[in-house]
Amino acid sequence: MKELEHNTMTPLSRDESHADTTTLFGFWLYLMTDFILFASLFAVFAVLRGNTFGGPSGGDIFSLPLVLAGTLILLASSFTCGLALLSARLYRRAETSMWLVATAALGVWFVVMEFSEFTQLIAEGFGWERSAFLSAFFTLVGTHGLHVTIGIIWILAIVAALYFQGFSRANLRKLFLFTIFWHFLDIIWIFIFTFVYLFGIL
Amino acid sequence: MSTPHYYEEIEALPERGEHLARAYVLGFAISLALTCAAYVLVSTHAFAGDVAFAILGALACAQFGVQVYFFLHLGHGGRSSQERRIAFMSFTIIVLILVIGSLWVMRHLDARMMMPGHMEAYMTTH
Questions:
Q1: Mean pLDDT of the region A172-201
Q2: A52: Cβ contacts below 8 Å, ≥ 6 apart
Q3: Res A17: pLDDT
Q4: 0.95 cut: is pTM over it?
Q5: Which of A81, A143, B44, B53 has the fewest CB atoms lying closer than 10 Å?
Q6: Are the C-beta atoms of residues A7 and A91 closer than 8 Å to each other?
Q7: Interhelix angle for A14-48 vs B79-112, to 10°?
Q8: Residue B67 to residue A90, Cβ atoms within 8 A
């Protein structure tokens, strides 16, 4: 019954609605600059992918099943975060939190897999200092992993805010911006999956 | 403005909810299919060389389009999504110039680069 009290929302003034649209657009512009950041790292990787300096090339160190698993995990987390937004539209707090926690769990799984891949490569002597190709690889994939890690912290903050404050206007805004951020990371990963891993293995 | 209006996407209208749910399920299903197609292509070595690279690139671009359309809510109308669409398209042009331009310039530079032996010959004669 506690959830019902959040169902009665007051109509918003034109100013408030305008502020939300502006925030969304500002966040969108931030994502576009992130898009450029990743594009630069992709360009660096594409230029340097052949410069292995006698070290391993992509085909030697990438494992196809592991990469597919990572991709599917991230895709599933993108879907669960969409479901969280759908539950939030109906003001179902427990359900929203559940989907958000599921998204965070999948995100943690993904980061742990990536981290273990990195530590294994470094242990074998194939760290970022080995060749230009590996430097570009660690920078590109590591930057994506860092974004996912920050996203996980953000989810947990939203879950906590929902628990303590319910569906306030600010919390709904954060949730919506978060889903866009998370889907954006999934899109970036599609390109890493294809142009780094699959192209490397081919 | 009688209904709560957060963003047009999370507006509490049932039919928009159905639309959103359909978009997520459809986007997820198509992305899954495209990912598996790319995986099968690489694991079975169905194609080789440039054909395989071209197909993989096309699959990635298709997946990019699908996820932008279904997940980033750029597909449906509304003023706020139009502003985002315009920003997205202009930044996509910058990204294409950045990536294609870098590859183009660096490839040319690579082709024009002197081999170490040639460099010494050049240094002694000039």
A1: 92
A2: A131, A132, A133, A134
A3: 63
A4: no
A5: B44
A6: yes
A7: 20
A8: no
Q: How far are the Cα atoms of A10, A150, B46, B71, B109 from residue B29, in angstroms, in the given order?
A: 37, 27, 23, 12, 43
At A63-119, the pLDDT tens digits run 889 999 999 999 999 999 999 988 888 888 999 999 999 999 999 999 999 999 999
CB count, 10 Å around CB of B125? 6
Amino acid at B21: A
Q: What is the ipTM of this complex?
A: 0.83
- Check residue A58 and give its pLDDT: 82
Cα dist from A152 to A70, A140, A185, whole Å: 16, 19, 12
Contact B20 A14 (CB under 8 A): no
Q: Single out the residue of A44, A48, A69, A67 nearest to residue A57, CA to CA.
A: A48
Report the C-alpha gap between A173 and A91 in whole angstroms.
13
Chain A residues in contact with B95 (beta carbon < 8 A): 35-36, 39
